[in-house]
Amino acid sequence: MGNEMSDAAAAVGFDDEHLQEAAKRHLWMHFTRMGSYASHDVPVMVKGDGPWVWDSRGKRYLDGLSGLFVVNAGHGREELAEAAARQAKQLAYFPIWSYAHPNAIELSERLAGLAPGDLNRVFFTTGGGEAVESAWKIAKQYFRAQGQPGRYKVLSRNIAYHGTTLGALAITGVPGIKEQFGPLPAGSVRVANTNFYRAPYFGDDLEAFGRWAADDIEARIEMEGPDTVAAVFLEPVQNSGGCFPPPPGYFQRVREICDRYGVLLVSDEVICAFGRLGAWFGADRYHYVPDMITCAKGLTSGYSPLGAVLVSDRVMEPFVSGTSTFYHGFTFGGHPVSTAVALANLDVFEKEDLVGQANRRSAAFRQVLEGLLDLPIVGDVRGDGFFYGLELVKDKATKATFDDEESERLLRGFLSPALFDAGLVCRADDRGDPVIQLAPPLVCEQEHFDLMGQILRDVLSQAWERL
Ligand SMILES: Cc1ncc(COP(=O)(O)O)c(C=O)c1O
After folding, report:
1. pTM of the model
2. How many percent of the chain have pLDDT more than 90?
3. Residue 163 Cα, ligand 1 centroid: separation in angstroms?
4. Which atom from ligand 1 is nearest to the alpha carbon of 269?
5. Mean pLDDT, rounded, of the chain
6. How far is the CA of 55 from the CAs of 60, 91, 281, in angstroms?
7. 233 C-alpha to center of ligand 1: Å?
8. What is the DSSP pairing of strand 292-295 with strand 387-392?
């Protein structure tokens, strides 16, 4: 099934040999060991339709990661392409620095309507890291305006990824991707994450574990000095480390702690918003109201780049009075074409009830993935909605993980290429313990879940034999 030649892709007629040469000579791929392409070809993707993508050789793949947790509405949506073309013809570009244009206005109003609580103000960026970076700056300036300039620190969780610009990288909790770039902006501090599979305490009691993880935030605020802490950045389901959902009551307790210490709660929903968890926002899914939401990715389903910070009326208040100005922005933030695409994307979401659909189909997706727990290498299946991780282990009874050499050989050397060769785009990641991550477009249904399950079963069984 994954190997069918598509007429459409073949007919496009890419000069694959030239693309390979030029990619290897000139293109700098992100987060990529460039040296590995001395002996391997660069996968060149040329076309998408629904949950499928095709490479330059006409081979079809199931996109089990929505590109990079992005293409929530699925590939090949003509109405989104047309919305972009229409806007580019009408007014390709104008900044939102002192000006506005109808799409940015309409989209901000629409996002305010969808967002929880009183998150009624929208600061547009071009992506997720910029949104995180902006939210930290908003928090700092907010506290200066409150007469608390000493509050500049941010808390985030171990192994959590929040972006790569230096501010966002400081907030990111993945040591391996930070160490080349220090010193980073001061004041970013780690707290416990919600990896229940490897819970250091309360491993047999999820709710008690959740209380412990939330209380770690309180302990850290106390340790740092409450009057130095500006904000806590948390994803609803933590991506990096392999999809850690919040234990029941976790976010309620975090909200209480933030309120008690006057610390802002930022819900980093760059992945989790726009249906990924079967709700518009992760905050809705887990019933909390943050002070800010950072989002990007699914906002346009990737048909054009866009990110945003949604800000509560309370946090916005000092920015709308007197001569106060937020000296911060991006040339392409709130781009007319991207905001047009986002509006068309939200239309698709509403017309097809993609959020409700993801919510209804999530149990079937989970069931297929949990079916893999009979494999000796699958230690844990966790996540929510259309966002799951499979943790791989060497020994299920002890939860023993792989050493560096095994991880290198298994994940990089075998699993990633083997899954791709078998026709599945997903992610084999070892920024925490080794995991395979899946986040397919929200249009996927049973046949796609089954195909993912079948490919994973085959390839993981082979991986086990190679250990
Ligand atoms: C939770 C989270 N925050 C921030 C980012 C950074 O977003 P971007 O790559 O658009 O800068 C990501 C990217 O995956 C993310 O998952």
Report:
1. 0.97
2. 91
3. 5
4. 1
5. 95
6. 7, 33, 32
7. 12
8. unpaired
